[in-house]
């Protein structure tokens, strides 16, 4: 469903009819469906996408709904427009099948609502390195563990601070089968990744939820080249 973003951030002067009110809005075109590009070669796909965006721009301008407008993107690939339109035309534009979204930038006879809301906690995944230490044992190699911990915090710094305060709990020793004390000591906090998990209910997702991600490269193992079919 197409959406209008930012409308709730404005308090409208109710003494003015919406039919007489204008709004500055950023209109973003929908990205073409990739499935319709499968049969084209890579360079042909780029041209095809450019042509679709140009066509969408022409279709939108032809509706003659703008008081003024400015094209966003490039001449080769227009991604949308920033325009001044009548307030009561917003829904009609948002419902167009080639429009992805409308972003409110300003509204006539309206006051921007100032929000001073505190940051809402969400879940962060912190990657840490733990050192496994055994009483009286000295070896040339040190056993470590890479651990990933989900923690509810308002920011990455807040997540690190909360875990820093729990360091002593991690260091609590126990006795192994040889009667030696063992402790798992936090050696470093290596990375922090903001997840899309806001509440425990978000975990009930059939396809699973990403809790950590880091891009790397490696030597190609499989010489097979993907043909782009899906």
Keywords:
230 residues, alpha+beta, Alpha-Beta Plaits, 4-stranded antiparallel sheet, elongated
Q: Which fold name is given in CATH as the topology of the largest domain?
A: Alpha-Beta Plaits
Mean residue pLDDT: 92
Distance N to C terminus: 25 Å
Indicate the CATH architecture of the largest domain: 2-Layer Sandwich
Oligomer: single chain
Q: Treating each run of at least 4 consecutive H or I residues as one helix, how many helices?
A: 4
Beta-strand proportion: 35-45%
The tally of beta strands, per DSSP, is 11
Number of domains: 2
Low-confidence stretches: none
The percent range for helix content is 10-25%
Largest sheet: 5 strands, mixed
Structural class computed from helices and strand pairing: alpha+beta
Give the SSE order as H and E letters.
EEEHEEHEEEEHHEE
Radius of gyration: 27 Å
């Amino acid at each position: 469903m197409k959406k209008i973003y930012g409308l709730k951030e404005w308090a409208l002067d109710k003494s003015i009819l919406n039919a007489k009110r204008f709004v500055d809005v950023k209109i973003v075109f929908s990205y073409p469906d990739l499935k319709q590009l499968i049969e084209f070669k890579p360079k042909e796909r780029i041209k095809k996408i450019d042509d679709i965006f140009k066509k969408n721009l022409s279709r939108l301008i032809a509706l003659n709904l703008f008081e003024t407008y400015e094209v966003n993107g490039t001449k080769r690939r227009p991604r949308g427009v920033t325009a001044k339109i009548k307030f009561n035309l917003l829904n009609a534009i948002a419902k167009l099948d080639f429009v992805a979204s409308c972003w409110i930038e300003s509204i006539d006879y309206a006051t921007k609502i100032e929000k001073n809301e505190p940051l809402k906690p969400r879940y962060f995944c912190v990657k840490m390195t733990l050192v496994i230490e055994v009483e009286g044992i000295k070896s040339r190699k040190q056993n470590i563990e890479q651990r990933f911990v989900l923690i509810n915090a308002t920011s990455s710094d807040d997540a690190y601070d909360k875990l820093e305060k729990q360091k002593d709990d991690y260091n609590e020793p126990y006795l192994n089968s040889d009667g030696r004390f063992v402790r798992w000591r936090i050696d470093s906090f290596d990375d922090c990744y903001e997840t899309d998990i806001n509440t425990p209910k978000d975990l009930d997702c059939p396809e699973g939820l990403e809790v950590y991600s880091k891009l790397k490269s490696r030597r190609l193992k499989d010489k097979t080249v993907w043909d782009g079919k899906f």
